[in-house]
């Protein structure tokens, strides 16, 4: 019995030492929660993924830390779910239910470190791996994710794509020259698009729920054009939505077909008014639905 306890203690010591070493050095993994990159340390050890608990605030979780007893209570607003974690314990409490944990909760550099699977399951979040990126979607975020990636409803998917916060901010400046908003999508697609205002144009691509600024350009009054990033190849068929400054009517249609009629529609009342520019295009079918990955 004594020998067994020594081995268990040694195993826990090795795990803690490994976590300290790994959390002290750069990790090759990334964490995305509800379309946002979270800067944090991630450890994958013996098939288990560990993260600092405070990195999961983007899941809309609240934490109440009891330093005296080294215990933390995790709750979610507007929910009756509650998880109680004890540092050093391999048992978590969800209400009156005991939940076995694959590895004990640890305190590393004053941060509570937990197995990621535990939090995902306790709060009904979807957790998936894409290469070395961990993608987490809270239960209330699932509908947007499903529509963005898997729905045939191009209007809804495009509105979500436009409303996503970009991971990178534009570095160039806009002016009031040609004061109109313009959106351009490849025909049948929602996950990449151009957006322009005045003399400034951006190109975005959405991967793993995150919107990336790939390229931008601006034209100076001298005629000189400044570019940042890699400009995408020209598309053969594109859809456009155009809104003049101060207008409430959107002009839209197929951009590269001279015989395609120009259509007009009222600006929608979306929270993001740019998303309100999007309308349905006759006979347009979606072609960029994401292939579902098996976890």
TrEMBL record:
<feature type="domain" description="Copper amine oxidase-like N-terminal">
    <location>
        <begin position="33"/>
        <end position="132"/>
    </location>
</feature>
<protein>
    <submittedName>
        <fullName>Copper amine oxidase N-terminal domain-containing protein</fullName>
    </submittedName>
</protein>
<dbReference type="InterPro" id="IPR036582">
    <property type="entry name" value="Mao_N_sf"/>
</dbReference>
<dbReference type="InterPro" id="IPR012854">
    <property type="entry name" value="Cu_amine_oxidase-like_N"/>
</dbReference>
<dbReference type="Pfam" id="PF07833">
    <property type="entry name" value="Cu_amine_oxidN1"/>
</dbReference>
């Amino acid at each position: 019995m004594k020998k067994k306890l020594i081995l268990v203690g040694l195993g826990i010591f090795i795990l803690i030492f490994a976590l300290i070493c790994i959390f002290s050095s750069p990790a090759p993994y990334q964490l995305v929660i509800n379309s946002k990159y979270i800067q944090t340390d991630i450890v994958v050890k013996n098939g288990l993924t560990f993260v600092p608990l405070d990195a999961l605030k983007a899941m809309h979780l609240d934490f109440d830390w009891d330093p005296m007893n080294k215990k933390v209570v995790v709750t979610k607003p507007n929910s009756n779910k509650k998880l109680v974690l004890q540092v050093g314990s391999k048992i978590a409490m969800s209400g009156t239910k005991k939940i076995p944990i694959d590895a004990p909760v640890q305190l590393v550099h004053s941060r509570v470190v937990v197995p990621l699977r535990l939090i995902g399951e306790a709060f009904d979040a979807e957790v998936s791996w894409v290469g070395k990126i961990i993608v987490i979607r809270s239960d209330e975020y699932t509908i947007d994710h499903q529509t963005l990636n898997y729905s045939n409803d191009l209007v809804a998917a495009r509105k979500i794509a436009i409303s996503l916060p970009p991971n990178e901010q534009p570095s160039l400046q806009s002016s009031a020259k040609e004061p109109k908003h313009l959106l351009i999508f490849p025909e049948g697609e929602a996950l990449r698009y151009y957006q322009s205002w005045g003399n400034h144009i951006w190109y975005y691509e959405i991967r793993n729920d995150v919107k990336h600024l790939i390229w931008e350009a601006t034209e100076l009054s001298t005629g000189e054009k400044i570019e940042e990033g890699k400009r995408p190849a020209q598309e053969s068929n594109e859809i456009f939505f155009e809104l003049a400054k101060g207008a409430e009517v959107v002009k839209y249609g197929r951009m590269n077909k001279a015989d395609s009629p120009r259509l007009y529609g009222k600006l929608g009342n979306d929270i993001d008014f740019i998303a309100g520019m999007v309308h349905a295009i006759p006979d347009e079918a979606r072609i960029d639905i994401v292939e579902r990955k098996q976890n």
